[in-house]
Amino acid sequence: LSDGQYKLKRGEANSYRITLTTGQFVNAVVEQQGIDAIVTIFSPDGSQLSVTDSQNGRWGSEPVLLIATTPGDYRVEIKCASTDPEASYQILVKAIREATAADREYVRTQRTFEEAEKLRSQAAATAKRAAIEKYKDSLSGFRSAGDTYHQAMTLWMLGLAHMQLNEYRSALTYLEEG
Length: 178
Known about the structure:
alpha+beta
């Protein structure tokens, strides 16, 4: 995994390997440039650790956040979900270092946000309410980390979840804040 500009065609995927030792933190972003990218992280044994596909469409960033639990080659897969024949993205590696307590909290916050996204997409009102609680938790974490981009995304998702429950006054509160 390294900085660079890349292209993908509809239905294709690019994979990147990164060799890590236990406890190392990776913070990178995939800047979408006309592509709706889905970012999946796999552990050295091939198990899926996370999937990120933000509601930002074909522009904006998708995070690549990871703390290695075992040494080895981790894999980051970027898949094109766009309908365009070909589009670009850029990878920006912000940090690869020994994880700090703040890094661990930031990764936990991102995973909580991903769990909220899965819950919000379910039809049941109970799932949407559980998503709202997870979004609130992740909002607090993103605020602590000073991540204004993900704060805005989380406020938007909180508003959307409340709208899906026909709770428009609550939705407006979050949408006005974002």
